[in-house]
Amino acid sequence: MTTGTAALTSPTTAGFALRSRNGITTDFTLNPTLSGFNCGTAPARRRLVLSRASSPSPPPPETTGKSPEDNNNVNDDGDGINVEGDDQKGSSVSVIKRLVDANPVGLGRRSRQIFDEAWRKFSELGQISRTSRSDDESSLLIQEGGPMCEFAIPGAQNTTVLVIGATSRVGRIVVRKLMLRGYSVKALVRNADQEVKDMLPTSVKIVIGDVGDPATLRVAVEGCSKIIYCATARSSITVDLNRVDYQGVYNLSKAFQDYNNKLAQLRAGKSSKSKLLLAKFKSADSLNGWKISKGTYFQETVTAKYDGGMDAKFEFSESGDAVFSGYVFTRGGYVDLSTKLSLPLGSTLDRYEGLILSVGGNGRSYVIILESGSSANTSQSNLYFSRIITKVGFCRVRIPFTSFRPVNPADPPLDPFLVHTLTIRFEPRRQRPSEALAGMSQDLRSFQLILEYIKALPTGQETDFILVSCTGSGIETNRREQVLRAKKAGEDSLRRSGLGYTVIRPGPLMEEPGGQRALIFDQGNRITQGISCADVADICVKALHDPTARNKSFDVCYEYVAEPGKELYELVAHLPDKANNYLTPALSALEKNT
Amino acid sequence: MASTTLHSPVISRSLRQITGNSLTWSRAFAPDRLLPAVSHSSPLRAVGGSVITCTAGTAPVAAANLAPGTPVRPTSIMVIGATGTLGRQVVRRALDEGYDVRCLVRPRPAPADFLRDWGATVVNGDLSKPETIPATLVGVHTIIDCATGRPEEPIKTVDWEGKVALIQCAKAMGIQKYVFFSIHNCDKHPEVPLMEIKYCTEKFLQDSGINHVVIRLCGFMQGLIGQYAVPILEDRSVWGTDAPTRIAYMDTQDIARLTFIAIRSEKVNGKLLTFAGPRAWTTQEVITLCERLAGQDANVTTVPVSVLKFTRQLTRCFEWTNDVADRLAFSEILTSDAVFSVPMNETYQLLGVDQKDILTLEKYMQDYFTNILKKLKDLKAQSKQSDFYI
C-alpha cells in the first residue's frame, strides 16, 4: 500500500503529483540510526489501521468528491485500476490539495505519507524478487493499453467496432482481443440477460437488436467505424440460415453503407466515402459524348468473306432507359461504345479503386477498356481491359482497377490517374449462354445493355466489414449445401455492398488456444484442416487495420502436419511469434475482389 | 531462527518434511466434510504422526478425469494473483490466446474492474480462507498461481497456508495442471522466509502428484520502474544498496508468453524451469542506465547492506515486528555476491523460443523513458500553471 503515489493514477494529475511530493521528500533523508528504524516499524503497522479507518468518511474540506488520496485509501493494496482523469480534474485537485495541506488532518496524512514512502523505500531494499506495487504511473504506459503494452495498436482508441455474434465461440474471443487493444466495442445481442452480460466485458456497449430486423441495425451501426460479423445461424433450418447468414449480412451492410452515406451527405459529397459520378443516363442529353464504333480483330481481306454485318445503337428509350444494343455477325468483329471521361475539377481517379456500373443486361459479357496516357495525344495511349458478365435484369458490377490487364503485355500496369477514355465493347467471342434463359434459343451475337450509371468507387485503406463465413468442411453432408448457399449469398451481398470487405472462411473451428500452429491462407476452397477459434479471432482483429485485407476473401486453416514418420516435407515455417504480423505477407499474395 | 517464534516451527529447513504445526490448519479443514471426493489420494489423512506426505497420489489425477460429468475444456484456466504485476500480464496473454480466464481475487471495496474489462471472469475468494476455494475451482482445467502475499501481511498466511490449501483443493478436484511461480535459488537460501516457503511449496506440489510446472523467476523489469526510473524522473532520492548482487531482470510479458508455451508443451510437464532475463544487472548498473536514459543524475541514497542486516536482526527481536523482519530478510542474500541468473539456452530450446524475442533491459528502459518523457512533455504543454506545489 503506497499512499504516497496516490495521485499518480490519473494521467493529467501525474505531473503535478510528482512535484508536490518532490518538494518535500527531497529534503527528507533517513538517518539510518537505531531509533529511526525502531520507530519506523510502528507507524508502518498503524498506518494500515488508520488509512482503512479514514477511508469511509470523506475528509472535511472536500465537498466536490473524492480526492485522489481518498481514492487510494479505499483501494488499499494499491493494485487497482487506473481512474481515467478528465482534464478539469487537475486544477480542481490542486485546489483541494492546498486545502488539505492547510488543515491538520491533511497535514497528518501528508506526514504519514512521507514517512511511509521512506519506509517503503527502505524495506524494498531488502527484497529482491518482489516488485513494488504497480500503482505508479508506470501503469499508464505498461498496463492499460499504453504504448509499452505489447497489445497496443495505434488508432485503436478512435475506432469503434461493432461485433455481431459477440457471444459466439469466435466472437467472445474477438471482443476480448479488441478490449485488450483498447478499442471501443459495441456488441449486438438479441436480449440483454444477465447471462449474456456476464459473458461480455463490462465496458462493452450492448445494443439490443437482431440482424433480421433492419430497424434495430440502423441504431446499432451509429458511431461505428468497423464491423466484425461472426454470428451464424444456430440451426440448419433454411429460414434461420437465410435470416442470419444471408439477410443479416445484407441488412447490416446496407445499414452500415446507409450510415456512411449519411455521413458523406453531411459533408456534401466531400467525404472520403462518397462515390464519384462518371456518367448518369437519366435523359437523352446524357447520351451526348458517347460514340459508337465498329471494328474487327482480323485485318486481312479474307475476313470480308465472312462479314455477316454488324450494327449497334445507343439510344434513350421511351421508358427512360439508355440502351446500348445491336448485333455482331462478323467473325472477329466488335462494337464499342466509348466516351472521354470528364472528371469534376479537383478529382482524379487515382483516389478511387474501381468502377461500379449499374446495368441491366441479358447475360452477355462485355469488355471494359480504359485508355490511359496523355489526353492531348491519344495515339500514345495504352489500353487496359477487363471482362464483366451481366445478369439478366439489373445488377451492379464492381470492376476494381487492379483487375484491368494491359492489352499489350509489355505495358506497365494501369495507373488510374492517367485514364482518359472509357469504352464498353461487345464481341461475340467467349459468350456463354445465360443460365437464366436456358431453354430459349439465344443468339449470342446480339446484345442489349441498359446503362443506368457509372461511378468510381472511393478507395479506402482498410476494411470496413469483416465477415466470418465458412468453407463447408466439417458440416454434415446433408446440410452442407443449404448452409453454404446461405453463406455464399451473404458473402455476395457484402461484396456488392460497396463496403471494404474481408471474408474469412475458416476450416472447422476448434476450441483451443491460438497462436500454436502455422496457418495456411488460400483461395479456392482447397483447405482440409481445422483452425482454432482464437486464431480466427486474431485474424479478424489483425485485418481491421491491414490494407492488404481489404476486399479479400480467403480460406484459412492450420497447416497440415503429417503423422510422425510420414512427413513429406521438412517444416521450415516458424510459428507466429511476438508482435509479428503474419497477415500482411500472407494476404498480399492473394487476389482481391474475388 | 530461534527468535522468530511465530514462524520457525512451520518453515524452518529442518522441517522441510512439513511437520506437526503446519497441520493445525489441515485438521481444521476436515477433508471428509469439504472434499468427499478424495478417497485414496488423501494427503490430509496420511497425516499420521508428524509428516504430511502427498505421495499417495500416484494415479489419482487420471482417476479424477474419469469421473462422470461434463468434461472440462482445456481452455479454461484459473489465475491466482491476477491483479499483481505478473498476474495481470498472464491474464492478458491468456485472453489473447483464446483461453477462458477466471481470476481469483479477494473481495474488496474497489473491485478489480480492469480484469472484467478485458473479458476475464472474476470470482471472489481468499487463499487465507480455505473454505472459499473449492467452489471457485469448478470447471477449471489449469491453475496458474502467481500469488504472493502483500508486503504488509504476514508471509505465512497466503504463501504457505493458502497455497497448501489451494494445492490440496486442486488435487482433490482433479485440476489437470498446476503452474507455480517460485523464486530462483530458493533452495539455496533457507534463511529467507519467503524463499523457504516457496521451496517448501514446490516440494509440496511435487509430492501432491498433480501435473505441474514450477517456474522460478529472477526479477521483473516492471519493478524497476517504480524503484528507480520514477524517482530519477522526479528528482527524488533513489535508494540503493552497495550489494554486488546481480539479477537477470525479465519482462513480465515475456514471462507470460513463455509460461503459456510451457503449459501447452507436454515435454515440460512436471519439470522445473527457471526464467531469467538476458543479462544480470547490479543495482548500480540499473541506476546508471536510468540516469543515462533520463538525461539527469540520480540522487542516490546508498544504504549499506550491513545496515539492512542489522535492522533485520533488530526487528526480529520483537514479535510484533516479525513481519518487518521477514520483509528485510533478503538482505541476507544481498551480502553474498549472488548472481540471480541462469543460462537460458536450454529453456529456449525446450520451448522453441528465439532468444531475439526476449526483451532486454536496455530496450525496455529505453521504451519506457521515450514514452514517459514524451508524455510529460505533453502534460507540461497542456497546463499553463507552472508552479504546482503551493
UniProtKB/TrEMBL annotation, chain A:
Gene3D superfamilies: NAD(P)-binding Rossmann-like Domain (3.40.50.720). It comes from the Eukaryota. SUPFAM superfamilies: Galactose-binding domain-like, NAD(P)-binding Rossmann-fold domains. Residues 308-410 form the NADH:ubiquinone oxidoreductase intermediate-associated protein domain. Signal peptide: none annotated. Residues 70-83 have a biased composition (Low complexity). InterPro entries: Galactose-bd-like_sf, NAD(P)-bd_dom, NAD(P)-bd_dom_sf, NADH-UbQ_OxRdtase-assoc_prot30. This is Uncharacterized protein. It comes from Deinandra increscens subsp. villosa.
Automatic annotation (TrEMBL), chain B:
Keywords: Photosynthesis, Photosystem II, Plastid. Coiled coil: none annotated. Gene3D superfamilies: NAD(P)-binding Rossmann-like Domain. It is found in: Plastid. The keyword Nucleotide-binding does not apply. Residues 76-325 form the NmrA-like domain. One of its GO terms (biological process) is photosynthesis. InterPro entries: HCF244-like, NAD(P)-bd_dom_sf, NmrA-like. Pfam families: NmrA. Its main location: plastid. The keyword Plastid applies. One of its GO terms (cellular component) is photosystem II. This is NmrA-like domain-containing protein. It comes from Deinandra increscens subsp. villosa.
